[in-house]
Amino acid sequence: MQTIIWNHLSETEKRKVIMRPVQQNGKNIQQAVNAIRENVAYNGDRALFELCEKFDGVKLDKLIVSADEIQAASSRISVKLRNAIEQAKTNIEAFHKAQQNQEIDLEIQEGVRCQVVTRPISCVGLYIPGGSAPLFSTVLMLAIPAKIAGCKKIVLCSPPPISDEILYTAHLCGVETIYSIGGAQAVFAMAQGTESVAKVDKIFGPGNAFVTEAKRQVAQNSTAIDMPAGPSEVLVIADESADPEFVASDLLSQAEHGADSQVILVATCETLAKETALAIERQLALLPRAETVRKALNHSRIFIAESLEQAVEISNEYAPEHLIVQTKNARKLLPYLDNAGSIFLGAYSPESMGDYASGTNHVLPTYGYTKTYSSLGLADFSKRMTVQELTPKGFKNLAETVEVMAEAEQLAAHKMAVNVRLAKLNI
Predict the structure, then answer these.
(1) Is pTM, for the whole model, over 0.70?
(2) What is the pLDDT of residue 31?
(3) How confident is the model at residue 230 (pLDDT cuts 50, 70, 90)?
(4) Which CATH architecture has domain 391-425?
(5) Which residues is 124 bridged to in the sheet?
(6) Nearest in space to 264 (alpha carbons), one of 352, 325, 334
(7) What is the arrangement of strands in the sheet containing 104-109, beginning at the earlier edge strand?
(8) Among the four residues 153, 216, 300, 329, which has the most C-beta atoms within 10 Å?
């Protein structure tokens, strides 16, 4: 990791050093995903079987995972892991149940009643990556709020062979149908529907560059997605009171997600920065994914800030997915932290806790999108509708206001809709 003293940089240099690594092969990925989209659109299930064999190396005879297969997978889960998953489920449920919207019902003026009501999104599709680190924890983060929100149909796609942990967790959380489909083709199957795959209204979940591109494309064509996503990232704000071993572990835990991940340390103490760099090397030697981590560290940074105020400014400008605050009084900084997906306060609040079991959601906007997007929550699985109801008296009292405004905007039919009712009332 490169160490940089923030005050030694020009404004142009500051903007440059906090830029994310450029995503490579963007055009090639787009072309490949275009081809997958057309294949799924024209060939349906046949395309899914072919692409599964091509990309996953698995020849399937069906796309839907059977109840017997789910039961068999569940029986192979250890009691210890079952208990851990159930504890995490309890915490995540508690936090997301508390997010239920308060419905608004207000008489704005006499005879004019306005409401906000919420309704669940009818059918949602969850995408769970597979590979070397099957993210069964993401099943909890997606399926639990979907269930609490009251979504009528919840389906899940994951590349085959689907791990026992994913199957068990999906069943535990009430997912109705599980498809052995991965990659961009899973996104297009859920967005478009095929002979076997249900068409959904909104797609949730992380994925590689191909999945991300597929989600971007379907979002432009009537199927909603949870949020824009890029590579994983963490920023740690630390002062002289921080434990360098703790800081190093937090940086490494995010770097191991992938070579395109980025980790940032903003330290107010040069000694801590140096000790953290040494701790990173010690801990790195113990990690099985060390090669991946080193690649991520190549485009990661340590910034030396002159004060906590400046550290906060750097963090707000970077707008990290995960923000960890290891300072003497971490909570004092919370009112000044504006841009982050999820914030972890204090030495004993590692990012791992939020990833798995504290109760907050680990599906977060990345790549600077935390300036405008929120962490995933219950609200993402529902939609709001406004309602208005006017009595004849309420209508009459508001009529002139609307007539004047409609006339000013030269929308005669709007004014007429008021006029014809006034005429009826004045008979």
Answers:
(1) yes
(2) 93
(3) confident
(4) Up-down Bundle (1.20)
(5) 154, 202
(6) 325
(7) 104-109, 112-120, 382-390
(8) 300
